[in-house]
Amino acid sequence: MAYPVVLSQLGQVGVGIADSMMVGRLGALPLAAVSLANSIFFVTMMFGIGISMGLTPLVSMGDGKGRIKRISRLFTHSFWINSAVSILLFFLILGFSQRLWVLDQPKVVQDLALSYLLIITASLIPLMIFQTFKQFAEGLSQTKQAMFITIFSNLVNVFLNWLLIWGMWGFPKMGMNGAAWATLISRILMMLLMGAYVLFTKRYAHYNLRFFLVRLSWPMVRRILKIGIPTGFQFIFEVSAFSAAAIMMGWIGVNALAGHQIALNLASISYMMATGVATAGMIRVSHYIGKGDFVGMKEAGRVVFGMVAVFMFVCALLFFAFRFYLPTLYIDDPQVISLAASLLILAGFFQISDGVQVVGLGVLRGMEDVKVPTLVTFFAYWGLGLPLGYLLAFKFGFGENGIWIGLLSGLTSTAALLFYRFEQLSKKKGLHQNQARD
Question: Which of 288, 281, 361, 384 is nearest to 50 (CA)?
Answer without folding.
Answer: 361
